[in-house]
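ok, trying the design again with the full structure, not the truncated one.
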């Protein structure tokens, strides 16, 4: 797999005299958080992001407070919630994916730190990765298409007898689908027929899986779309019901009951994002902090699911897995 070079912080952050974000003793900073799902109390307690902030001296309820918003599967609410966060007078916003665009539409002055975003140059969030120049910085999903193709390869490797693999996809008029730019080439190279099954809303999942079985699919690949990630438990349930090994570009797909998941190391990303937040709250300008590209990746294999499906996962794949669920 081709890996992008990790961009370090090339220069010390510049502190502007009198900056609105310059750290002030005794001040409580407000951080806006725009996410795809509402975190549970346990997720907040064990959050690597909050832990990394605390290690840098930022304690929630002491010198930082959060304005948290989550779309919970309703992508159309992104702009509404981003505007709501901006109105709450935050000092900084953390978000990811399409949330970055929504936050940027809501403000071009409040610093925005991305846990991950696709191609900030094409989207107009940055003049360059080394020096973004605007109010957005953080980590990229620049390896996104690589992750899609690699995770598809891993699914093929986990189910070597698969000759037809279905892939869930949004309809053509719902926006660009980058995973369909790389995965067909991988399928062709492996002599696998790709069956594209379009789904507009969650209510169509049941019918989509029924069509996969009608088309004699041997496995199913789930792209890392927010809607699919949010409904991963339901998708996994249907995959097991129809006895379809499932894989996708997120470790959480395997954790939810799929066969295999592959992605960048999310915990690493969010801890690195805490570094950006720390620097900005201490006075750095987001436009001076380089975007960082993925450098750490994880493979998760669910052996419990493999046993339910009567599959034997190749030992070569198990040896490369960072985590095996049994």
């Amino acid at each position: 797999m081709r890996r992008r070079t990790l961009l370090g912080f090339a220069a010390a952050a510049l502190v502007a005299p009198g900056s609105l974000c310059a750290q002030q003793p005794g001040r409580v900073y407000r951080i806006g958080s725009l996410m795809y799902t509402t975190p549970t109390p346990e997720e907040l307690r064990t959050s690597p992001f909050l832990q990394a902030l605390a290690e840098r001296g930022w304690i929630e309820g002491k010198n930082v407070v959060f304005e948290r918003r989550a779309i919970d599967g309703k992508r159309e609410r992104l702009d509404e919630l981003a505007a709501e966060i901006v109105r709450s007078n935050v000092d900084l916003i953390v978000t990811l994916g399409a949330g970055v665009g929504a936050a940027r539409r809501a403000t071009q002055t409040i610093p925005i730190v991305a846990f991950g975003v696709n191609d900030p140059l094409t989207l107009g969030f940055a003049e360059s990765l080394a020096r973004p120049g605007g109010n957005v910085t953080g980590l990229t999903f620049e390896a996104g298409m690589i992750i899609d193709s690699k995770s598809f390869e891993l699914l093929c490797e986990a189910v070597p007898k698969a000759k037809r693999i279905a892939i869930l996809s949004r309809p053509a008029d719902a926006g660009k689908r980058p995973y369909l730019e790389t995965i067909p080439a991988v399928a062709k190279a492996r002599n696998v027929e790709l069956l594209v099954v379009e789904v507009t809303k969650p209510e169509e999942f049941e019918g989509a899986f029924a069509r996969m079985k009608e088309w004699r699919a041997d496995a199913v690949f789930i792209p890392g779309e927010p809607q699919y990630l949010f409904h991963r438990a339901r998708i996994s349930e249907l995959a097991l019901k129809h006895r379809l090994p499932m894989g996708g570009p997120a470790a959480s797909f395997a954790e939810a009951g799929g066969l295999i998941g592959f992605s960048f190391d999310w915990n690493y990303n969010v801890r690195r994002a805490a570094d950006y937040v720390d620097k900005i709250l201490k006075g750095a300008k987001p436009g001076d902090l380089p975007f960082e590209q993925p450098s750490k990746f994880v493979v998760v294999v669910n052996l419990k699911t493999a046993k339910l499906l009567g599959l034997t996962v190749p030992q070569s794949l198990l040896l490369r897995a960072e985590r095996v669920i049994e």
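Keeping the full-length input from now on. The two ends are 27 Å apart (CA to CA).
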